Amino acid sequence: MNPTFRPIDAYSGLLERYVAQLDWSIPYQPNCKHAIEDKDNYACVSDHSNCQDSPIGGYLCYCQSGEGNAYIDGGCPNPPVQSNHPRQPTIGAVYGSIQPRTNCPTSCGNMSIPFPFGTELGCFAKLHLYLTCTPGIPTAALPVLQLTDRTLVTDISIGGGVLQIHGISEPDDFMSDSDHPLYALSGEGERRMVKWAIDNMTCEHAKMNKSDYRCFSTHSDCVDVTDDRTLRHIGYRCKCSSGFEGNPYLQDACTDTNECHQPDKYICKGICQNSFGSYTCTRSSIAGVTIGLSSGGGILFLAAIVAILTRRWKGNVQKRLRKRHFRKNRGILLEQLISSDQSASDAGTKIFSLEELQKATNNFDHTRVIGRGGHGTVYKGILTDQRVVAIKKSTLAMISEINEFINEVSILSQINHRNVVKLHGCCLESEVPLLVYEFVSNGTLYDLLHREQNGSLSPLSWEERLRFATEIAGALSYLHSAASVSILHRDVKCMNVLLTDSHTVKVSDFGASRLIPIDQTHLVTAVQGTFGYLDPEYYHTGQLNEKSDVYSFGVILVELLTRRKPIIQNEHGEKQNLSNYFLWAMRERPLEETMDPQILEEASKEGVMCMARLAEECLCLTRAQRPTMKDVEMRLQLLTGRRVAPRVEQGEVAQPAGNNGRGGIAPLIGQNSSRQFSQEQEFVSSLLVPR
């Protein structure tokens, strides 16, 4: 047997079907691996020889140079030295080549033939990868590529490790041999797929055999091949590493893949940048802005939806809560009382909604607070009709009996006096009812009397003080006697006396007020008021009547006369009620040391003494000795309308006072004479009588 015969002759009937061919091998070992391990019986004894697995089992030996006899010692000549790679043997080996020769055919008809497959000696890597390119038959113009005489190859995939074949109906040829190392058949019918391997070794063993390892290119990997049907190991094949493409069986044939040129396979929604063995995908600024705007818009839309739903839910909760408060605060009862009272309706008394008052006060903003007291906080508000109002938000403790509160609102809505703050209405939709009064803009009488401006108190004439006292007395007299029930203020003090721009008095803050029917003389209540103004008898007994307001008014008279605060510091550095100090000073000290020097310069001594005596009466510790507010109002009106003459002795005629403007007409009183003057003059005279 000629050792240099063509490998195609090993396949019977491929070219000359009438010529008989004989396949042979050394059968003592199933393959080269086992043969090499059996060193004593290894047949490839010549240097520069290689072992080749036989497709029929066993193995064959061949010289690397392609010439000589590998089965005898020294039968193979030395191969020529190759400069391009230390592993590369001489091209033209008998049954396979590490690398193909330079002029190997690369196609058969329209079929590409990549290495390790080949159609000529020196062009295929292993014997089982030899293919036959047969001339075209009369019905076909192009040559065809055959694996066997009944099998046509239609496609070769190096990276996928498969052949597409046509013509096999049953796997009964050499590929079905369990000892065959290269193929695994799959699919049905005439068109099938064949998985192939470069050698029958595993990747682990192949990498150990450096001289025959076929993954020749850098950046290539070894892949074990198994039969999908039987799961038996077939061998190994090579592929380019991830990020590289090409032919791993050729030297340096695995080159970098430009993933950016294959957008269908390598998806990049942005800017693609190729790198060696990989690629990066960065989002463009436009894409980023678009995505950012889209995401931001979506988030804002969802936030808006959530905010709207939350606001509606809160609104529904607030509506139900307001209705509950309105029913608890007897809103229906008050509506009936106001509608049945024509005077309240004509006065414009209204039940406001909480929403109206929230809008008027900017949701009860702290910057709208104009006053705080023991009975609540007062806010400045502007209604939708542009009326400026004062909205009083009472403390929770003050609304203990809601029915009594409703009655008070009903009564107060009927008050129409120029010196009493007008009640416009109330709101019952909050936990604590709100009262809406007219707004008085010029501060309080307390500010005018006691608060310094630029280091000194503002001048306050006698006439103004007398007018303030008269207007306050008139307002309290109206509350005590002009309605069907007496209205007791219970917290009369300078801070609750408001002043308009024209210094007109407005009595305010009825948070502590109580109603006394005409047939009752007093009420027993928890003591409320302000120290310095509090009626001592009310403080000790808890019994409240109109004389309690008279006592508090007496303190205001003393403040007007002395321009001192209701709680003062005496000569010993102790705090003392102004009322107690005043009563002591009227007995123990001259008038000039007690009164404000300004009024002594402007008013007559008799006029000042008249008001001082009236204040003494109002401050009597016993209520029975105090005058009523009606009496007080009448005396102050007489004092305002008349100039009082100096006191005269009995039987003397009062002379004109001259040009000082402080004189007047005094009554003639003789020892045996009768009263020859009016009742008004009697009131004035009575003020001069020591008590």
TrEMBL record:
Residues 651-670 are annotated as: Disordered. InterPro entries: EGF_Ca-bd_CS, Kinase-like_dom_sf, Prot_kinase_dom, Protein_kinase_ATP_BS, Ser/Thr_kinase_AS, WAK-like. It is a single-pass type I membrane protein. The keyword Cell division does not apply. Residues 364-639 form the Protein kinase domain. One of its GO terms (biological process) is cell surface receptor signaling pathway. One of its GO terms (cellular component) is membrane. GO terms for molecular function: ATP binding; calcium ion binding; protein serine/threonine kinase activity. It comes from the Eukaryota. ATP binds at K393. This is Protein kinase domain-containing protein.
